[in-house]
Amino acid sequence: MEGVDTCTANGAALQDTFLSHQAVQCGFCIPGMLCAATAALDRDDVHSMDDARDSIAGVLCRCTGYQKQVAAIHDVAQGRVACRTDMPATGVAVGTAVTRLDGLAKVQGTDSFGADGIPIDALMIKAIRSPFHRARFAIGDLKPFVARHPGVERVILAEDVPGLNVHGVAQAYADQPVLAQHSARFLGEAVALIVGSAETIDHDDFGDFPIQWESQAPLLTIDDALSADAPLLHDARPDNILIHGRVVSGDVDAGLSMAAAVVEGHFQTSFVEHAYIEPEAGWARMDGDVIEVYSPTQAPHPHREELARILGCSEHRIRVIPSAVGGGFGGKLDLTVQPLVALATWILGKTVGMIFTREESISTSTKRHPATIDSRIAATADGTICAIDFHGDFNTGAYASWGTAVANRVPVHASGPYKVDHYRALTRAVHTNITPAGAFRGFGVPQAVVAQEQMIDELANRLGIDRLEFRLRNVLRAGDALVTGQVLPDSVGIEACLLALKPRWEAATAEACAANQSAAAKRLRRGVGIAAMIYGCGNTASTNPSTIRMGINRAGDVILHQGAVDAGQGSNTVIPQIAADAFCIPLQELKCVDAATHVTPSCGRTSASRQTFVTGKAALLAGQQLRAKVLNTLGQEPSANVTLTFGNGLIASEGSKLDLSQLPANEFGYVMMAEATFDPPATPLDKDGQGSPYAVYAFGAQLAEVEVDTHTGTTRVLRVTAAHDVGRMVNPSLLEGQVEGAVAQGIGLALMEKFVPGVTLGFRDYPIPTSLDMPRVDTILVEEPASIGPYGAKGIGEPALVPTAAAILNAVSHAIGKRMYDVPATPEVILRALDAPPS
Ligand code: FES
């Protein structure tokens, strides 16, 4: 066992209890958590929940929100050591809080992340990167440089790329070079790779690399990029606009004319870093004429396609093998380290690895788009929303990445979970010379919700209607049409979510009101906020299939090939739960093959809250089809309600037995196999954004309680209550974990986090919430089954984050009577707002 000291009884007890509490997601922080907590327990320092929280205050976790870890540590301190949950019986895996199936390696510290597998003798890479936001450059004679560094085997430049020196998640918009040539478009862009021995790469000073830079005036803001004399980042994109998004229905002017109240606001949100604790790392090696690329990726098959284009070879010559992923949240969807190690290995024929420094990771990886939003919302006197007029500009940085997805998704979602007859939402993704912005848990929707839900509060206040009641009056219900014209047949749980929050809303509002009467209230103001959301699961208005393979081998093993990368969210557990129930086998008897392009069919990307819904549905279909084949072979009806047992080369069913050893095996070694694909039905949007962009939508609402210190401007989040309609709970405790982790990220988005290229270079400059920043989080899971989902289930990964920041900002406004237009609402922003005259 590496990394974790389990020599003490407390250490071993913590490992078990972390597992039983589902205190583990990606697992990257867990060895550090366990060491810190074990030391505190061994010192007898933990006597309360606060002590437990203190014990891990120095260990960052970006996934969990710390709730379950703190509870686990406290339990061990109290002598309550828990073991993992029992495995569920046949047919009831779905709905059971099964301990995550891949958790043991994570608490034992033996899981293999991107850097862990790099062979000791691998060559390593140092990237030469642009020190300027925008610059031209010329590389000089490399021979003297290489001669001065005997451990350097090769310097790789753009012209060495054998295929296309370009990548991008949307192929039609692919524009990011693997290595920039002649000019760099953002600070930190790679322009050359030095490949050499690990010792050389670690210790040599490459300050003598022969390169001449000519710095140019950068375009850093949307205003810079859209100014009349702005240079173009990409010749093919006039006005530096990557793409426009648009959803229009009804007549906004007519809607506004009906209004008793109209509110409007101009909002600015910040550039937000994913801050996954594991920096990018990976390696590649040749296996004959096949290259194997190992890395923490959220998108193995799409990465294989992109690498084939870069290397100029067939996809069959590439295996993408995901390592454990130490947090992703959308940031490991794009290629980062993969083309660099693949290129060096392909050219040199040798094993090559690379580990990004923290500064390299933060400076060059994609982020949440900074947004500038103008919003206007109108309602009639009875509190019915009669018009929404929204415009959002998203700073997409130097390259396209997921800018197209953000610009297209936001207009569909800027209505919130409300019925709106007159609607106009226009967006633009604008190129600048900042780090490319990409996918980060919500594809721009959390930024839109920050604006829209604050405007909803303003409108309710203006009309003198309780803010939760105002939302209830306008929510969508089954049978209603969205602003895209799509009619939702079922699984519209927003009303249920708001009603679930109502008791806490009333109590919290009364408590805040009482607290604000106290003597301390002149300085410390309490506030309560709420925000609601809708979120389409899956890619927007496009195909996004997943394929699951299940087979039975001659030994009688039932094997599930599931290619949905588990970046901590739980697909390595949830997909087997669904498959086991569909096939009617005890979960523990199912053997699982995890994602890798040569052993699992494509399950697309782990993004867009699609894996439980899309891959889960494929698993349901594959399980049902395989069972039907088995029953057919046994001469039974496909729907026969019989118990099947497997093993020792046999399938047995109530008196009949099938000897598998005599059956022919297929190319995968299976005597019986099913492969099922599910592609959720969605239609392209027309020029006004009308159509059915998603097959299913998640709904939710969150309630935040805060205390604002009006002297310092600091905000403490006291409690968050989150209600989410998940369709059907597949694994309740994993769902809770997603919500708790999202709340932590939402606190960062609302109050703390602001990435500045070239300035915020690590966690010292870019603080994220620690265990001490976390409030109590209560999760209420609502089940409004989606008829199209597996057992009714839909996604939670992004929906859990979408309303958090808006709920907190509404609570801050409730506390101090000032609207938060600049986000994050740092102490400076709050103090500035307090100083501003009443609006
Ligand atoms: Fe803590 Fe992922 S579980 S960083």
From TrEMBL:
In terms of SUPFAM superfamilies, this protein maps to: CO dehydrogenase ISP C-domain like (SSF47741), CO dehydrogenase molybdoprotein N-domain-like (SSF54665), Molybdenum cofactor-binding domain (SSF56003)
Residues spanning the membrane? none
Show the InterPro entries listed in the entry: 2Fe-2S-bd, 2Fe-2S-bd_dom_sf, Ald_Oxase/Xan_DH_a/b, Ald_Oxase/Xan_DH_a/b_sf, Ald_Oxase/xanthine_DH-like, AldOxase/xan_DH_MoCoBD1, AldOxase/xan_DH_MoCoBD2, AldOxase/xan_DH_Mopterin-bd_sf
Q: Name one Pfam family in it.
A: MoCoBD_2
Using the record's annotation, list all stretches that form the Aldehyde oxidase/xanthine dehydrogenase a/b hammerhead domain. Answer: 108-217
The UniProt entry's sequence similarity note says: Belongs to the xanthine dehydrogenase family.
Query: What is the protein name given in its UniProt record?
Result: Molybdopterin cofactor-binding domain-containing protein
